[in-house]
Each structure stands twice: as C-alpha cells, then as structure tokens.
Amino acid sequence: MGTTDSGTEAVNKQETGREPSLRDGVVGGARCVHCGAIGTAWPIRFQDGGGLSVCAGCGGWIARDGSAESPCGVCAFPAASGVVEHARCQEEEGAIPPAGRTSEQELLSEAVEELLETMFESGRPDGLTEYVTGLTSSLVEGSVPDAKFVDLGEPVVAVLPGRQLVMSLGLLAALEDEAQLAFVIAREWELESSGWGYRRFRAASGTRRSWWQRLTRRSVDPLERALELSMFVGYGPAAERAADRGALAKVVHHDYDASAPLKALRRLESAAIAGRGARFLLAGERAEWLQSGARSLGCSDSTRLNREVYRRVVDGFRVFAG
Ligand SMILES: [Zn+2]
Ligand SMILES: [Zn+2]
C-alpha cells in the first residue's frame, strides 16, 4: 500500500511539477519558516482562521503566504514575522493588564459566556461539574467558578475571562484518568495566570463591532475570533511550552504520575480533528521534553492516576456514549 501511495504521489508531482496541495491551498513541501520542517503545516479552519496554518514539527504559526506569525505580546492575536507587539498595541495604555478578577473582567466574562452559548451547544452533566470544579480548585489558588462544558466531540479547553474553565465532553472522553485531566487543567491555568487569555479577550472587546454593524456587515466578531483562537489554536509555541513545563511540575507536586502529561497529549492529539484543533499537536521536541522532564522530576512511590475515580465519574455521565 505504502509503495503504491508514494508511486501515485510521484506521478502527480511529475505531472504538475509541484508538491500536492493541502486542503486550504498551502503547498505541502514548503519549509516551515520557524523550524525548517518540510510539508507538515496543518491549515486551521474555522470561521475566520485568516489562512493560518500550524507547523506540526514545532507548533509555529504560518500565514497563508508562508511567512512566520506569532502572537502579539499585548493582544495575543497573530502578528507578522518579527513583530513582538502590534504598533497599535504598543500605544495602549498599560500594555500588560493586571491579572486576577476585576470588574472589567466580570463584564468581559459575561459577554464571552453569552457568546459561548450562541456558538456551541452546552453539556449539562451536573455531577461532572462538581468533579471537574473540585479538581480545578485543588490545583489552583483562589476560588474558581463552576466548570462549563460544551457538547463537542473534539478535545477543546480554555480558560475564559473571569477564570471560567470551559472544556468539551470530547476532551473528557479522550482522556484516561484524573492525572491526565489534572495536567490539562493545570496547563490552562499556567496560560491564564500569564494573562494570555485576558489580553486577547480584552483587545477583542475593545474593537468589538456594535450589534447592528454585525448584522449589516458579514464580518466575524473579534470576540468570536478570540474565542475560537483560544479554544482551537492556543497562544503559540513559546507560551504553550511554558504552560507544559509549569503544568508538569504542578502535577508531580500533587503526586500524580509524571508520565501522564505526555499520555494526555498523545490521546488529545489523536482525537483532534486535523485542520482544526492544533493545540495538542505533539511535535517531536515537545514529546521529548515532556519525557525527559518527567524523568528528571522523578516519580515518588505515591504517584497516582485515579483512573477508577475518573472512569466512574465520566462514564457515569455517559460522556462516552455516542
Ligand atoms: Zn516548524
Ligand atoms: Zn497586538
């Protein structure tokens, strides 16, 4: 089979004189501008992906024209190669907003929650809410609102303004035990405490179009784009790598199995829909680092997975059914 496939590919290449195209028209075979890997970009498809692709080798963002992109340090939206901060963002008063729960965050939180409900069907498994919220509280400082669930088969997770954790039922179905879920939650909190999500949503709300403009012009609401970027794309390799590191340390500190993080990402990567979710792409470097990090942090005798607890709770609410 493999021989036949590559034979066909070779014929195609000969006929067209170029590598086969990926789904969004990005030519496979182009080198990643970040790491030099060949032909491994995942096109991101949602309402306004803006032609963004993610390199499966390094997690780097690539614009439609093949140039490099990375998140702006202030607004967390994609910025062109070499741009650390958008010019308009540099002018913003107090470029890095304060972390924590403020009244501004409350307002923003309400708007984002409203949007979430119009964009996704929500899951309402009550007992699951208690379990996930309880686990989150055991991992993070301060109080957290009840976790929210969306009825999506693919793995999706984000912390929204107001410290609102939202995850898909598909994410819970993909994971195997509490240790893996603890890692996923802990890494979202690493991102939230670095202010990434807040900066992005705040910037989006500042440029939000009025309702009548949205009705009359067929453009995507920046807040909607912020939500989709946060859930499906994340914050770029540097921020995500830092989150991996912090979260690995946290799960080991809580006596969970140190090999759970790598297993969690493996499960999530295979459950992600190619060309949509790119947050859990397990690039070689990321896998290697998690493995060596787990080894160096070591495992104590008391490492736990809590697999039985997890299966009982998650199965009990029929996350796995259909
Ligand atoms: Zn790359
Ligand atoms: Zn910016």
Explain what you see:
It is a single chain. This protein has 322 residues and is an alpha+beta fold. It has a domain at 102-316. 48% of the residues lie in helices and 9% in strands. The protein has 13 helices and 9 strands. It has helices spanning 2-16, 87-90, 103-119, 126-139, 169-174, 178-193, 196-206, 211-216, 222-233, 236-253, 260-271, 284-297, 307-316; strands at 41-43, 53-55, 61-62, 68-71, 78-80, 122-123, 148-150, 157-160, 164-168. A 5-stranded antiparallel β-sheet has the order 1-2-3-4-5, with no helix packed on it. A 4-stranded mixed β-sheet has the order 6-7-9-8. Strand 2 and strand 3 (61-62) form a beta hairpin. Helix 7 packs antiparallel against helix 9. The longest helix has 18 residues, at 236-253. The radius of gyration is 20 Å and the shape is globular. The two termini are 32 Å apart. One zinc ion (ZN) is lined by residues 72, 74-75, 77, 79, 85-86, 89.
What is this entry, summarized?
The protein has 322 residues and is α+β, with helices and mostly antiparallel strands. Helix content is 48%, strand content 9%.
From the structure above, extract its key features.
322 residues, 4-stranded mixed sheet, 13 helices
In terms of DSSP E residues, the strand content is 5-15%
The beta-strand count equals: 9
Radius of gyration: 20 Å
The secondary-structure element order is HEEEEEHHEHEEEHHHHHHHHH
What is the spatial order of strands in the main beta sheet? Answer: 1-2-3-4-5
> Overall pLDDT, averaged?
80
Structural class: alpha+beta
**What are the bound molecules?**
zinc ion
Principal-axis shape equals globular
Q: Uncertain regions: pLDDT < 50 for 5+ in a row? A: 1-27
Largest sheet: 5 strands, antiparallel
**Helix share, percent:** 40-55%
